Amino acid sequence: MQAIPATAENIREAARHARAGRLIVFPTDTIYAIGSDATNDEAMAALSAVKARPKGKASIVLAASTEEAARYGRFDERARRLADTFWPGPLSLILPRAEGCPLSPLVSGATDTVALRVPNHEVTLRLIVEAGCPLAAPSANLSGEPTPQDPSEIARALAARVVLVIDAGPPATTMPSTLLDLVGENALLRREGALDAAGIEGIIGAVRRPDDQKRRKRDTRRER
Q1: Phi, psi of 115, deg, nearest 5
Q2: Could you give the CA distance from residue 57 to residue 218 in angstroms, rounded to a whole number?
């Protein structure tokens, strides 16, 4: 398989495949993603199988706008402020699933949450609009392996697993999106990525890190 250029015709072709539940690879404003229609259970099961992901692992879902994303997740004031500031851009927000959310339960893993993002990439946004559906979009690699940076290399690696690869040149960054959990009262940084956490804290205040609890336990033992 060869990666194909991001022409209008090829984007429409990729959108048709995604809408039909087939797996495609496409660029984002961070790294290349492998994905399909996030409302399609069969497509999401196939995506997990191709990625060789652990059972129950969630996928980030890409939407074309904040208004669309609000159909899938429940936005509180913090989420709205962050979306207004950083979307489109490399920030993914974990939110409670909205009532009547049409997304496949498989994108949520074993939770009642969903990770949402509006990407800042013309090709990605056109693809979502053309497909007429949100796209589940984990990185274009097998689980636990590094993500290739060259679309041609991705095409060779995934040739038997996807129907096409859209080539929009090298990714803008080698880092994934920053992943922020807003389900609880205190925001939790699940993954540091292309957006600096300091920028997030400038909007909503202090954000917990995954190792904060471990650090507190160590400090408590020292005090004892």
Answers
A1: -100, 125
A2: 29
CB within 8 Å of 168: residues ≥ 6 apart: 5, 6, 26, 27, 121, 123, 151
Q: Over 70: is that where the pLDDT of 181 sits?
A: yes
The answer, as to whether pTM is greater than 0.90, is yes
User: Do residues 114 and 72 touch, judged by C-beta distance below 8 A?
Assistant: yes
Q: Answer yes or no: are the C-beta atoms of 189 and 207 closer than 8 Å.
A: yes
**pLDDT, position 3:** 95
Q: Is residue 162 helix, strand or coil?
A: coil
Task: Provide the pLDDT for residue 223.
Answer: 36
Cα 176 off chain centre by: 9
Of 113, 111, 120, 104, whose CA–CA distance to 35 is shortest? 104
> In angstroms, how far is CA 46 from the centroid of its own chain?
17
Picking from 103, 117, 107, 154, the residue whose alpha carbon sits closest to that of residue 28 is 117
Distance CA 192, CA 176 (A): 8
Within 10 angstroms of residue 200's Cβ, the number of other Cβ atoms is 21
Residue 56, sorted as left (phi over 0), alpha (psi -120 to 50) or beta, turns out to be left
Cβ proximity of 114 and 159 under 8 Å: no
